[in-house]
């Protein structure tokens, strides 16, 4: 998605054994290498390596399987969350995962994993019970509470540099009935919007079923509201409705999967890079304006009051 650098070679493994062989190869020839799951991170070099190295693209490691009792799932890192959700929801289950369908599994899990329901379930790594990992010496091991505990601890939010994870064994949750709605907040309400967000954060400490996710840019803001019960417009969200707004998606009683699909429809695959360029242009304009104001504030004949 955001592989801004062009590698010398791309390898697409289909098993942990393939990844192990890749580790042996890179060690033997001494090449630089990078590993990519979904490539969602837009920073240059985070999802690839330049012409001097090898890119290990995990997109063909895309298995998703559910245990017979539905309590656990094995998810491979080449998946994106939309596919994972769709697969698990067909059996009435869900995973605690990314907030957009096109986010890759690997980077999200290894970065900790902030979800819509972190107030209930914690970070996504709290649901991981085992990692299958290929180490730099090409060995394939498992890391969990009883085997390789130090590595298991480090992988829980410690990033992607400890090894190449080829399977995540996770606890699943029910794809239950919830309420959700999306609001587009007018740009004239930016200050008040921030105040309401702060008020909500304080109130939500006593109501972990409530979730609000924000986007704020030069043209206004958006908030995605959700409640982990089939209760329409709970009172904890009332302050948001007092702001000037338009609907992004309507008040709905549905499932977790329905909510993810509603949000992801507003952020189609491939839109991130376009959004970055738009915000960059507006940010440059704001920066120039701020520089002028700062210069004026330092003139002996001018004053600046907060």
Describe the structure.
There is one protein chain. This protein has 306 residues and is α+β, with helices and mostly antiparallel strands. It has 3 domains: 51 residues; 114 residues, Uridine Diphospho-n-acetylenolpyruvylglucosamine Reductase, domain 3 (2-Layer Sandwich); 85 residues, Alpha-Beta Plaits. The protein is built from 9 helices and 14 strands. The strands form 4 sheets. It has a 5-stranded antiparallel beta sheet. Strands 12-13-11-14 form a 4-stranded antiparallel beta sheet, with helices on both faces. The protein has a 3-stranded parallel beta sheet with strand order 1-3-2, with helices on one face. A hairpin with a 5-residue loop joins β4 and β5. The protein is globular.
Keywords for this structure?
single chain, 306 residues, alpha+beta, Alpha-Beta Plaits, 5-stranded antiparallel β-sheet, 4-stranded antiparallel β-sheet, oxidoreductase, FAD-binding domain-containing protein, FAD-bd_PCMH-like_sf, FAD
